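Narrative summary of target 7.
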Amino acid sequence: MANASSTTTIRPDEAAHFGQLAADWWDPKGSSAMLHRLNPVRLAFLRDAIDVHWAADSRSVRPLAGKRALDVGCGAGLLAEPLARLGAAVTGVDAAPENIAVASAHAAGAGLAIDYRCGDLAGLGLTGFDLVTSMEVIEHVADKAAFVAALADSLAPGGLMVLSTPNRTAASRLLLVEGAERIGLVPRGTHHWDDFVTPEELADLLVAAGLTMGEPRGIAWSPVKGLHLSNDLALNYIVTVTSA
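Modeled conformation, tokenized:
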């Protein structure tokens, strides 16, 4: 595994932006409404990836029993809680203390024991995780190579990583940045199109960290299906990652 840089990958302005959204993160009609729509799509991909990677029984309700999972950029716990319900011992990391406070309170209210940490991943010394997830995060970090190296360092040998991020295309600029933010589906200032990562760029970052990217699946939108897994990578995509 690559050694993560000691340079922080946190952008204080990004952490502050998402921290301001913490209070209504769990409101499906609030500022994080789009994440609530996106989460089931990500979970469907993730469940399939878990079943394939560990040859798990697709009928099992706790396929991650006995495994450790790390969710990086966990926000208020929208993905961490389902991972816990799938049986994992979950650690969640986020740059915004407001998010960690809301996540911890929500998990406690749900009777879930999730270990939430606030800080920069590279500085927390978290290692040996069977599953590492980081959804819609890499486009917000200051040093993408250092961030990917830190993800690599946290993954156990033989483990599985799942990442998702917007693609840098004309379509994503039009729909995710100019469209979704203008009509209020996504809070203003959430996306910076120049920081979006193409699948080819992500693959190169992963290779440099000693990792291999699987075939990406698109997360597309249509008036009929809403958000759904697709072969169309133009807006957003999700991938499995393993040790090279």
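The chain has one domain: 12-243.
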